[in-house]
Design brief:
Chain lengths: 325, 325
């Protein structure tokens, strides 16, 4: 008989925990601030405390614990390498620490990887066996499911679509993330402002280019500001080239795009779709291909952490999730 | 009890067939010219004839037929789409044709994909479960094994590493293949010759730039010609960026490089390795990573076709090959 699963979403800001029954009904849910600035020991104590809060009276009911954490991390060893938004965390064996504390198997996956499992089990990619999930926000992360299994690689480092190298000008090598994530969009908007370009964004930040972020660009674009629209289109074209790479390497059924920047909708999706049409090697790669917005909201990483545990760290086929949930 | 396998290598020039026993001992082998210019019907007749030549007296001994063919092809349906070196072939259902003729299951894979299986079962990647195989010759093809299984995608079109888009100058989009395969190397050599660059290649082609191909560039580089060395290094840097993409997406244990251009050895491999070191996101991607030359020779596609059949089209784990062979 299938047992319950505990899921943890360790974010830079919020720490979430949930307990699910064997068919993914939510039994308990807690959240608290991560308080990342308090350092490693304080955050570890909060993780243990929030697990205890959702733990049932009898631990025997629980099959395993799934944890979504910010990368880079080694999903094979459960070691968190050194995430920029968790100060003081350097090669922390989080898997071993939580296993020792609760005596249960622990599976750890990076947030974008588990989000792919979540979208495939309950979201936009339900029923698909070949899935590329991309999240565009402060960075660009991804999770890839290949014939029903999460692509993790030899050390659990795979699926870093944001770090595909691209040549920008004069042979200089940059990456999809550096040229198309939120900070890149904001950087170009600031440069345009400083260069004196005419745009409604100037008033929106009260004349201070330093106040400009991707959110402002998104809002201005929705109100028809030409420069803001062009900046999102440029980001869309670069993300689109990353997606063409994913098409040619993985030949997926669906591309799911999430993350804060993706909330700009067609302003980003239309140039992405156009770039994919323009540069796909053959129409066969586009046959039956869907490019869609992520369907799950703030709980995507919690659902993903549960799916990660249910597939034993992504090693099992996602078909297991259909039987389970 | 495991049965015998028949393997076919349908190349643009040579048509090869072999029969292997359950432990991959060669029992029979035949080859003949493909005679591609004679058209579809003639080549189909030769394929059937060569299969009959290696077929044992009792067809019951044979488990299945594996075929290596030039891409693009749909490995799920067994349809050959339209390979440039097989004139007159357009959406030919080769799998169905051979199944009907011999009453045996037929598995078809593109030559680079099955070469990855061959190198993983008997070549440079033996014992590895995360493998990227790249072949650099007239084109750039690849085959990728992810946690023991061939990456094929929803329609069997995956692993086209040569068609990763790259931005060259002024936003123009090209591809790894267009910028680094043999014809690109030859093109740049011709341009340099026409521009009057000093190089030993001029004498090697008796003053005629049109005689220049990648083979000449390779030979000149081996003799210390500076321009030829630089041209191979430039190709190596571009291939290296494609490999960085593969590292970040697949996190493999080994990169195996084959194909005619790879025979230039360190002249190509050194700039590839340098580029990988320079642009890998984190040293964790390089931990334990090997970049090696392909180990199998002309029979790589035959061995690969046998491995393809033994893994039922790449759907089964390559661990099956260890048990089998």
């Amino acid at each position: 008989m299938k047992k319950e699963i505990i899921a943890i979403d360790l974010g830079g800001t919020q720490l979430r925990a949930a307990r699910y029954d064997a068919t993914l009904n939510l039994l308990a849910r807690e959240h608290m601030p991560t308080g990342a600035d308090d350092g490693l020991a304080a955050v570890l104590a909060r993780i243990k405390a929030i697990i205890s809060l959702v733990m049932p009276a009898s631990r025997d009911q629980v099959d395993s614990i799934g944890i979504s954490a910010p990368g880079p991390l080694n999903s094979k060893t459960g070691v968190i390498v050194s995430p920029p938004n968790l100060p003081g965390w350097h090669h922390v064996p989080l898997g071993a620490i939580i296993e020792a504390a609760f005596g249960l198997p622990v599976y750890i996956g990076n947030d974008a990887n588990v989000a792919a499992l979540a979208e495939a089990s309950q979201g936009a990619a339900q029923g698909c066996r070949h899935v590329c999930y991309i999240t565009v926000s402060t960075g660009i992360g991804s999770g890839i499911i290949c014939d029903g299994r999460l692509v993790t690689g030899q050390a659990g480092l795979a699926a870093e679509l944001g770090h595909i190298p691209i040549i920008v000008a004069a042979g200089k090598v940059s990456s999809i993330e550096k040229e198309a994530a939120g900070p890149a969009i904001a950087r170009r908007a600031r440069q345009a402002l400083i260069a004196g370009d005419h745009t409604a964004m100037l008033a929106m930040v009260a004349g201070d280019p330093q106040q400009l972020d991707a959110r402002v660009v998104g809002a201005a674009a929705r109100h028809g500001d030409r420069l803001a629209i062009d900046l999102l289109a440029e980001a869309g074209r670069i993300i689109g080239l990353g997606i063409v790479t994913a098409l040619h390497l993985f030949n997926p059924q669906i591309i799911v795009i999430g993350g804060g920047v993706s909330k700009t909708g067609e302003l980003l999706f239309a140039p992405i779709r156009q770039t994919v049409r323009d540069h796909a090697l053959d129409s066969a790669f586009l046959g039956g291909l869907r490019i869609e917005a992520a369907a799950l909201g703030d709980d995507v990483a919690l659902v993903g952490a549960a799916a990660l545990a249910a597939t034993q760290g992504g090693d099992m086929d996602i078909g297991e999730l259909d039987q389970r949930f």
